[in-house]
Design a protein that fits this description.
121 residues; mainly alpha
Length: 121
């Protein structure tokens, strides 16, 4: 699951970098591919949360995940608006997103393969 999630994130980042360089009719098609990859990693993300969250806190972890994902939307809209107002383009925003997703890929690869079992005291 970790590799599926990591490579889904990497492909999203690379597509964002490629998206920043394009200025043609294929832009809408590429945007649809980016959204498809975004949706395709969600099941792996939920499985990883279930695997690494302690069982007594799993509902709390899922709640925090959804609160963060829903509350970040307005901030992103503000970021996009301010970025476009400052530069009249989205190039730097896409590059930033691509670099962040690529960095996230390497962070995901550093996760352990299996949930470590704590030793009884």
């Amino acid at each position: 699951m970790k590799l599926i999630y990591a490579f889904g994130i990497l492909i999203q980042g690379l597509l964002l970098l490629f998206f920043a360089e394009m200025a043609s009719m294929f832009l809408i098609l590429l945007a649809l591919v980016i959204v498809a990859f975004n949706s395709s990693v969600l099941p792996a993300e939920n499985i990883l949360l279930a695997r690494f969250a302690p069982s007594e806190y799993q509902s709390l972890v899922y709640g925090v995940k959804f609160i963060l994902s829903f509350s970040i939307g307005p901030l992103v809209v503000l970021l996009v608006s301010n970025s476009y107002a400052a530069t009249q383009e989205f190039y730097s925003l896409y590059w930033s997103g691509g670099l962040i997703m690529t960095l996230l890929f390497f962070m995901i690869l550093s996760l352990p393969l299996k949930k470590s079992q704590s030793l009884p005291a």
